[in-house]
């Protein structure tokens, strides 16, 4: 056994302890009734993309937690006809932004609409209207971390769910085929939204964070170092920080994800351990069609992966483009999703590892569906 094989074996045998709070469901039911009730509001303004006149694009401003205006790009594929199309809601990584419409060319050429959104306060156009009730470390995630009902984590979760709600209510979109896609911070948000929203059909989470965050505070070199510094300055508040994280950790929500999920992580997780592989590494499974992360292991739940869920080993469609800038941008876009009728109808079964039984349908959302 070489060092790499030994590392894989160690990761595959690691089962993290679950630390979900007893009132998790009650907490999210209250937050949904308070922040997610009612139809999503937003305005969109037409935008022309230089060199791509056949693409319809809009700049969108929609309302999120605490009524903060959030910015996004809503882009439709060319030659879409009169039928509603599937939509990908894209969440970016920490310190990132919603990017530019031409960055989504691979998705658009595959026939998907894209709604790419800013995470509040970070590198995009969106500000942060959340008031701080306590001192914080440089960055964002420690904002109000001692008050879970007003924390930055709750604000970004509500913002992300609202993005899905807004996309699903657009007339050009098929509401039964809305996927969430993201990497790092965006991957964690995609998983969290998949657990909390009944509108999501498919989730793609590349090297996601927000999983096993108590471990990440000790080992991550990414955003969780901010919480490590916060706890160094306030050691007596460590229990309060961990309590807040437990309401947003994917470990706590894994059993609520009842839809196809594609996750990825590497041994070194971007070579900086910003997302430690122990937080998402899948162990050997009995069923080759299932994907299990540490979050799934803590609950014994496996999320099914249909055979045609991701084509060509997650390789995006390759098209020749005259613009070299666009060619460079297409070197590493997200994978190409193939939607299935079962997913579109919301009836894709989830395998329960403990006894092998299949639930008849997806678990309903823990919060009421917003009224139109």
Polypeptide structure, described:
By secondary structure, this protein is an alpha/beta fold. The chain has a single domain, classed as Rossmann fold. Helices cover 28% and strands 17% of the residues. The strands form two sheets. The protein has an eight-stranded mixed β-sheet, with helices on one face. A three-stranded antiparallel β-sheet has the order 9-10-11. About 21% of the residues have low confidence.
CA-CA gap between termini: 58 Å
Radius of gyration: 20 Å
- The CATH superfamily turns out to be Alpha/Beta hydrolase fold, catalytic domain
Helix content: 25-40%
User: Domains counted in the coordinates: how many?
Assistant: 1
Strand content: 15-25%
H/I helix tally: 13
Q: What structural category do the secondary elements indicate?
A: alpha/beta
Mean pLDDT: 77
State the CATH topology.
Answer: Rossmann fold
Q: Major β-sheet, in short?
A: 8 strands, mixed
Low-confidence stretches: 286-363
Question: How does CATH name the architecture?
Answer: 3-Layer(aba) Sandwich
Strand count: 11
Major beta sheet, strand line-up = 1-2-3-5-4-6-7-8
Q: What general form does the structure show?
A: globular
């Amino acid at each position: 056994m070489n060092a790499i094989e030994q590392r894989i074996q160690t990761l595959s045998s690691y089962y993290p302890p679950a630390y979900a709070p007893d009132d998790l469901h009650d907490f999210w039911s209250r937050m949904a009734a308070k922040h997610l009730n009612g139809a999503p509001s937003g305005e969109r303004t037409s935008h022309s993309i230089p060199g791509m006149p056949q693409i319809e694009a809009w700049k969108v401003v929609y309302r999120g937690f605490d009524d903060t205006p959030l910015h996004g790009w809503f882009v439709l594929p060319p030659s879409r006809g009169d039928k509603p199309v599937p939509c990908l809601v894209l969440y970016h990584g920490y310190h990132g932004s919603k990017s530019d419409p031409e960055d989504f060319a691979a998705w658009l050429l595959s026939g998907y609409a894209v709604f790419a959104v800013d995470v509040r306060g970070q590198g995009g156009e969106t500000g942060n209207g959340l008031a701080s009730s306590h001192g914080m470390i440089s960055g964002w995630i420690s904002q109000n971390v001692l008050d879970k009902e007003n924390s930055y984590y709750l604000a970004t979760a509500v913002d992300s769910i609202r993005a899905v709600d807004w996309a699903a209510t657009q007339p050009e979109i098929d509401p039964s085929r809305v996927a969430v896609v993201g990497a790092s911070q965006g991957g964690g948000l995609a998983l969290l939204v998949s657990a909390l929203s009944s509108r999501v059909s498919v989730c793609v989470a590349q090297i996601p964070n927000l999983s096993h965050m108590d471990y990440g505070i000790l080992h991550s070199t990414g955003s969780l170092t901010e919480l490590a510094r916060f706890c160094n300055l306030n050691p007596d508040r460590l229990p309060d920080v961990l309590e807040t994280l437990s309401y947003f950790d994917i470990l706590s929500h894994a059993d609520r994800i009842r839809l196809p999920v594609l996750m990825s992580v590497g041994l070194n997780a971007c070579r900086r351990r910003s997302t430690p592989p122990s937080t998402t590494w899948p162990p050997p499974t009995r069923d080759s069609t299932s994907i299990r992360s540490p979050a799934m292991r803590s609950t014994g739940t496996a999320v099914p992966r249909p055979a045609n869920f991701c084509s060509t080993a997650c390789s995006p469609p390759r098209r020749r483009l005259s613009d070299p800038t666009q060619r460079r941008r297409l070197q590493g876009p997200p994978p190409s999703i193939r939607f299935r009728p079962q997913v579109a109808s919301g009836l894709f079964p989830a395998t329960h590892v403990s006894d092998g039984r299949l639930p008849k349908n997806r678990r309903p959302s823990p919060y009421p569906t917003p009224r139109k």
